[in-house]
Amino acid sequence: MTEQQKDENLMIIVAAEQYAMKYGISTSEAFELLRENEIHTLIRKHYNALHTQPLDESLYFADNVLKQRPGKV
């Protein structure tokens, strides 16, 4: 596994953990929500921009994507 892949995984984990805390759900529920909405794929796709931001940005990114999808959040 490359360093970039490790960083991408960390961003996904942080997004799920912080999303769970923000919305008062379990981390597993947050992971499932992110998986269902392919947030993990989007975080990997936008890694080059996201890795230059604070780690919290992965939460804001996930939150913004989910808010734009009907019936979410």
List how many beta strands DSSP finds: 0
Number of domains: 1
Helix amount: over 70%
Structural class, from secondary structure content?
A: mainly alpha
How many angstroms does the end-to-end distance come to? 33 Å
Q: State the low-pLDDT regions, or none.
A: none
- Taking all Cα atoms into account, the compactness measure Rg is 11 Å
Tally of contiguous helical segments:
5
Given the C-alpha coordinates, what overall shape results?
globular
Walkthrough of the structure:
- The chain is mainly α.
- The protein has one domain.
- The chain has five helices and no strands.
- Helix 1 crosses helix 2 (27-36), helix 1 packs across helix 3 and helix 1 packs across helix 5 (57-67).
- The mean pLDDT is 88.
Please outline the helices and strands.
Layout lengths: L2 H21 L3 H10 L2 H7 L1 H4 L6 H11 L6
Which terms summarize this structure?
0% strand, mainly alpha
Offer a concise description of the structure.
Helices cover 73% and strands 0% of the residues. The protein has 73 residues and is mostly helical.
